[in-house]
């Protein structure tokens, strides 16, 4: 079988996030986060699950780094918990929180694994939510304060930084649909949150530059390719609006210094003006080093005048398989997305900072986890990424979501994304077949065609 080889310095990694794996939610001075509060509120998370213990990574990080080493990972993307560092979100630093990440980073470096830190993967200190959270502009400054602390302590050890993970999810699932913490249902607030997140991203990145650090910094967006169900003008318009909502609401400010015209007009008519201060749109265009992309699925849409403000309905198709999240498996969407980014949005280096799939994995009688579908999913997406690189896209690395099964937000422990299985009763880890296969991919720096 012939192989597709990746560029020599291609980065193979895996990703996690603090609230999803760490546990130790009150340990060593950590403050409460909005996800602690949300998951402790009845009815918010499936089966009443919480991140109180999660994968107990806080205590098992050494074992986890050894597993990463066994897999041959080049890099590990994890997030730092803001309320572990600043229990009140601002002011007094919790040294023990810093110490934990120092131990983790040292362990990674010792194992030859490059740490990549995400500063904000959704666990805002509850103390800041009590002051209005991301809807309050002051939170921008608090985020810059927190990011400076992290840069000062880890700037010489960590070479890749991500300010925010998926501001779309933070803004809209947290504040418009209410599925995520803090659980509000206010679309105008969500739009303001999105704006404030972008400003905070750029000010944090500016602070990074001012320290003269050598590493690279960027933001991670959840992006998808959007397709109209038919060629009709109505369906195409619906697809364009969904694309504006899902993708360009963040890409356009970052790379064009403005919000997408048509959707901005719709929102203005419906909700009035947002609080956009003079200079904000210039700040948001502050250049960074790379763009991180989380890609899971595509959106297939058709026009439906009853379907909300965008008049767009999301469709299923019998032609595709679906994951346990009910997300369509559509690898070509990754290729289309990468090409679209490169041709129409940015020439920046790109990293896939998340890609993966949830399936209902079981440990078999022989102790193994035969997750063939996850392997097939990853392989198909690696091949599409390779195709985009061949076409000239500067894709520099790929982080699989996720290193291990973990707390999948509103779905709790019910959805397993890991290439490592976690037994939630014992916290025992088992490499799934996809992990063994991924190790081969990394070793060969290539994938079978
Ligand atoms: C992303 C998120 C991850 C993970 C993944 C799978 O939106 O960044 O934390 O949950 O989706 O749903």
Automatic annotation (TrEMBL):
Domain of life of the source: Bacteria
Catalytic class of the enzyme: hydrolase
Binding positions for substrate per the UniProt entry: 20, 121, 165, 296, 401, 408-409
GO cellular component entries: cytosol
Residues spanning the membrane: none
GO biological process, one term: cellulose catabolic process
UniProt entry tagged with the keyword rRNA-binding: no
Keywords of this entry: Carbohydrate metabolism, Cellulose degradation, Glycosidase, Hydrolase, Polysaccharide degradation
Keyword set includes Hydrolase: yes
Enzyme Commission no: 3.2.1.21
GO MF, one example: beta-glucosidase activity
Active site per the UniProt annotation: 166 (proton donor), 354 (nucleophile)
Chemical reaction(s) catalysed: Hydrolysis of terminal, non-reducing beta-D-glucosyl residues with release of beta-D-glucose
Any Pfam family: Glyco_hydro_1
Record-stated family: Belongs to the glycosyl hydrolase 1 family.
Protein name: Beta-glucosidase
């Amino acid at each position: 079988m012939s192989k597709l080889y990746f560029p020599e310095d291609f980065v193979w990694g895996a990703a996690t996030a603090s609230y999803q794996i760490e546990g130790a939610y009150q340990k060593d001075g950590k403050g409460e986060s909005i996800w602690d509060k949300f998951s402790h509120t009845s009815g918010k998370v499936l089966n009443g699950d919480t991140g109180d213990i999660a994968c107990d990574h806080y205590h098992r990080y050494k074992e986890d780094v050894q597993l990463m080493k066994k897999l041959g990972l080049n890099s590990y993307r994890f997030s730092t918990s803001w309320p572990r560092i600043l229990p009140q979100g601002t002011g007094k630093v919790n040294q023990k929180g810093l110490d934990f990440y120092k131990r983790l980073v040292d362990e990674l470096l010792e194992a030859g694994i490059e740490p990549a830190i995400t500063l904000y993967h959704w666990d805002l200190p509850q103390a800041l939510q009590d002051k209005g959270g991301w809807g309050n502009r002051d939170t921008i400054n608090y985020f810059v304060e927190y990011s400076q602390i992290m840069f000062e302590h880890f700037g010489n050890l960590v070479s890749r930084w991500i300010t925010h993970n998926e501001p779309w999810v933070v803004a809209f699932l947290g504040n418009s649909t209410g599925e995520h913490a803090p659980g509000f249902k206010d679309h105008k607030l969500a739009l303001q949150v999105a704006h404030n997140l972008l400003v905070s991203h750029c000010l944090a990145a500016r602070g990074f530059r001012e320290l003269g650090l050598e590493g690279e910094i960027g933001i991670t967006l959840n992006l998808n390719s959007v397709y109209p169900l038919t060629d009709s003008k109505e369906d195409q318009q619906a697809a364009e609006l969904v694309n504006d909502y899902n993708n360009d609401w963040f890409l356009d400010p970052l790379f064009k210094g403005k919000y997408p015209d048509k959707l901005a007009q719709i929102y203005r008519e419906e909700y009035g003006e947002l609080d956009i201060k003079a200079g904000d749109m210039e700040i948001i265009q502050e250049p960074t080093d790379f763009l991180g992309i989380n890609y899971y699925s595509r959106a297939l849409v058709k026009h439906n005048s009853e379907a909300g403000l965008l008049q767009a309905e999301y469709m299923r198709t019998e032609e595709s398989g679906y994951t346990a999240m009910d997300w369509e498996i559509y690898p070509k969407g990754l290729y289309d997305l990468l090409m679209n980014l490169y041709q129409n949005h940015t020439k920046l280096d790109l990293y896939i900072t998340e890609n993966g799939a949830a399936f209902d994995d079981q440990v078999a009688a022989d102790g193994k986890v035969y997750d063939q579908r996850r392997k097939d999913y990853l392989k198909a997406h690696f091949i599409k990424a390779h195709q985009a690189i061949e076409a000239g896209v500067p894709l520099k690395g790929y982080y699989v979501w996720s290193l291990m099964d973990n707390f999948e937000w509103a779905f709790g422990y019910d959805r397993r994304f890991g290439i490592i299985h976690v037994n939630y009763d014992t916290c025992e880890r088992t490499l799934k077949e996809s992990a063994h296969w991924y190790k081969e991919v990394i070793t060969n720096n290539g994938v079978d065609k």
